[in-house]
Design goal:
Elements: E1 6-15, H1 22-40, E2 44-52, H2 56-64, H3 69-87, E3 94-97, H4 101-116, E4 120-130, E5 135-137, E6 142-144, E7 153-155, E8 163-172, H5 178-187, E9 192-193, H6 195-206, E10 212-213, E11 215-216, E12 224-225, E13 228-233, H7 235-240, H8 242-245, H9 253-259, E14 263-267, H10 271-285, E15 292-296, E16 299-301, E17 304-305, H11 316-323, H12 325-335, E18 342-343, H13 346-376, H14 390-411, H15 415-436, H16 438-441, H17 448-469, H18 474-484
Parallel strand pairs: 1-2, 1-14, 2-3, 9-15, 14-15, 16-18
Antiparallel strand pairs: 4-5, 4-8, 6-7, 8-10, 11-13, 12-13, 16-17
The protein binds ligand ME8.
Amino acid sequence: MADASSFYITTPIFYVNDVPHIGHAYTEVAADVLARWNRQAGRDTWMLTGTDEHGQKILRTATANGVSPQEWADKLVAEAWKPLLDTVDVANDDFIRTTDERHERNVQKFLQHLFDEGWIYTGEYEGYYCVGCEEYKQQSELVDGTGEYEGQLVCAIHSKPVELLHEKNYFFRMSAFADKLLELYETRPDFVQPESARNEVVSFVRRGLDDLSISRSTFDWGVKVPWDETHVVYVWFDALLNYITAVGYGEDDERFARRWPAQHLVGKDILRFHAVIWPAMLMAAGLDVPTGVFGHGWLLVGGEKMSKSKLTGIAPSQITETFGSDAFRYYFLSAISFGQDGSFSWEDLAARYQAELANGFGNLASRVIAMIGRYCGGEVPTGTEAARTEADEAIRRIEAEATDAAWQAIERLQIHEAIAATWKLVDALNGYITEQEPWALAKDETKRARLEAVLETAYHGVGTLAVLLSPVLPKATAKLWTALGAPRTVQEQRIDRAHEWSVGTRTSALEPLFPRVEATE
Ligand code: ME8
């Protein structure tokens, strides 16, 4: 089992039936910020993301487009899903596709193991299947269709008709794990987060679990069931296994032991798959359950979940082309309490960009660098002890407090709290400069020592901010780091000791970090 000094975080692997929208990018940047933060705190970190390429949904999309499912998946991965990572500046360590050989052969290994251990049997099932969800639905999850679907039952999530299927399939004895799962939620209250997600999962499992149909035989786009090639593995059973096949399950025990278990980050729509089915699968295989499952909220459009199928998706590049990837990352992670739903609006984004990034942080950094340039010829001041005041001490204290509070928030996966804790330092430094008036001190030669102490304090505070904000704003903080003349890269600084960063000797000019954005339609 991986130890406390390692951190393995995953995103869901996304369906390649369509291109990504900002909801997918939101999960990516949240996972990336947690990974970067942990990496900078010295943990042996691994971030995994990827694509989910089997199943009927992909097969049908490919067929409708006149290509094979493999061709379709290859095209979307190359043209849309991998480029998304650059668009929003994600530094993932690996990208897994469920059509990778390393995945397919170990899905078969896992399945064979469960079969040999008696956890899989043959059965028959009749039920309503939603291809959008790739899931059999309970009657309670269906609603009456309207408009073109009048008279049909539709999935409450996708608003598309479900299909009545009757199949002879292989089943996983999931019902045997209800008590063990309840014990897991009880003994590890943080296993499912946030609290609302945990409550939902606990009450779901308390109602009892059915066994799970884990194969399909009416189409062949999937991983073959190893002992019966007329069946393919159910797409969710296949997909969940990516989290272990990507880190050596079945073929590299050392690597697997070093990485597994993972902290999973998912949207709340797929919480049950991760917090119920997945740990039951792992328990059956005798493997460790995940570190935890965090179900974040939805980005809403008009009060409804933004979705590909409802054509309400906004492309991430629409935002990054105007505001940049840093602003994308900052906006979604600071404006929405992590775990809650949030609505996106261009007005809110533009207002926060201007007030918080351009005026709050960017302007602070520019002013401090510019004043050191103007008053000290770019030489980083080293103020004398005698010239220091309580106001300077207060800034140093706030740097330490912000560093600690942000790291503690990240340990609890509360990204918005970590940003808010950091922003206390932004506000404190802006207030400090307004009060200390370095431009007035500069006019009086007798106040030279005090001017240097003020600029030294401000310089130090801005450097601490660069370190603390580097996971969220990697591009802006890298530029700032260069302007501060600080050694190595900002990413190499320990973030859990951000306030102890090693200062440089000379600053250099800094272009505006968040240039003015002209209002357009
Ligand atoms: O479910 N707001 O893939 P998927 C926030 N392949 N996040 C959103 C969102 C929104 N409006 N819409 C989508 C699948 N997401 C499976 C997963 S994992 C083993 C298999 C994000 O392409 C969110 O992370 O439908 C959600 O859980 C995920 O995209 C669903 O992506």
